[in-house]
Each structure stands twice: as structure tokens, then as C-alpha cells.
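User: Before I run my own analysis I want an independent prediction to cross-check against. Here's the chain; please return only the C-alpha cells and, at the end, one sentence I can use as a sanity check.
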Amino acid sequence: MPAPYARVAILDMYDSHANQGMRSILEIIDTYSLKYDADIDYDVFNTRGKAEVPGLEYDVYISTGGPGSPLDSEGSLWEERFFNLLNSIMQHNERYPVEKKSVFLICHSFQLFCRHYRLANVSLRKSTSFGVMPMHKTEAGMHEPLFEHLPEPFWAVDSRDYQVTQPNLERIKAMGGKVLCIEKFRPHVPLERAVMAIRFNDAIIGTQFHPEADPYGFLQYLKTEEKKNLIIKQHGLQKYYDTLTHMNDPDKIVITHNTVLPRFLDMTIGASSRVLVF
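Assistant: C-alpha cells:
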């Protein structure tokens, strides 16, 4: 039996800023490929920095998180090309329902998608949300294949200055989507909870949290003097040490890292179901 084959396009939204996300995404793909003896080719496109976007020759598209505002780029060349690609993917999926292309949108990309298609309100937070945070599943999230093996709530890295709130449920439903999870309920804070994941349709899904984050990369991120000082200034020393403590808990970001994106790849590539058993 020939090895499962797939082409993956990674849209780099980091705008040339140092990050751990790209390393982690590539490691997840490589680990999946080795585990299931799958032949996966991937290419990285510097979308924000050089307005690079792939064509429709790929099977899977992963669009990363990134720094900065998801509002200020409206009308830019790179964003125009980005949404032309997404529109082309959705048109392709309508025309060829048995050969659909899958898309995963992370944080900044998720916010852009919600803003562009008017699916929710995207706005600046009063303060940065940062740390290992609980994600609470909705009823639809309980039945989402990417989340079904995660506890309720499950934990993930949250790192953002912006937020997606006030989802337009009618527009999301018309697209074929459902809200999957929301952020922690804080009854003492008079603010609406942010939407943390949406399945936009059966081929496109996005999260406002970082499913790719792993303990190694997150630790390197936290060790930078700039990030350490920022967390302590905004949230206090105890928050910084609590984040370090949660990082290696096997039931927190470790299980999320090992579940969400690998399961997304498997739903598209299906390599695990094709493994030979002797």
C-alpha cells in the first residue's frame, strides 16, 4: 500500500517577528508524518511580510497566529490576496465536495476571518490576555471531532491583545458553522466572554487560542526578559509563576498540543486509518 500523501501550505502571519509557533507547527507535521509513515510535503508562505499566498494545489492550509492588529491591515495587498485565496478554497469546496481542501486558522488569522466575513465583533482588549487558560466547550464543541478527546474545560495557551466577541450566530450558521468554545467565565468582570473557537464549515475551522503551543516553545517565550517583565507588570509575579507551573501539566497544554492539530491533519490526510497492522 502506498504511503498517504498530502501537500500542506503554511501561511506565515508573523510578519518577520521572532516566534515559536512556526517551529511547533512544523514539528507537529513532521511528527505526524513519521508516526503514520505519511508522505507530507509542506511549503511556507510569508503572507504578511511579502504578500505571498499559495494556489489551490495544496490539500491542507494552516494559517498562523501573529503580532499586531487584525483591524489595521484591512485594504492591504497581502490581506486582499489572503482572502482571495480563502474565497477560492470555499468555491472549490462547493464545486468538488469529495475533494475538499481543509483550512486551520490560528489566533490572528482567526480574528481576520471573523472580521472580514462579519461573523463577530473584533476589538482591542482592555488588557493583554496571556497564559495557560481554560477553554469551555459549547454544546457543539462537545461533539467537535478535534476536541472530543479533550477534557471539559481543556487548557491552551492564550496570547492576544484583541478579541472576538458578540458572534453573529445567524451568519455563522448560514456559512455552515458553529461556535465551539468560549473563554473562562468571570462573573466579577462585567465583560462578555470571547469566542475561542469556531467551526466555520466542515472544511474550515479556527481557534483564538494556540493549539500548536508546546512546553518547550512556551518556556523559551516566557524566558525572554521583555515577555517576563510584561507579564509581571500586567498580571503580577504570581501569575508568571503560575503560568510556568501549568506549562508542563500533562492535562493542560501538552494534551492540547498533542490532540488538536494532529487530529486536524488526520481528518484531512487520514493516515492513521491506513496504517498496516501485522
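Sanity check: The CA atoms of residues 125 and 162 lie 5 Å apart.
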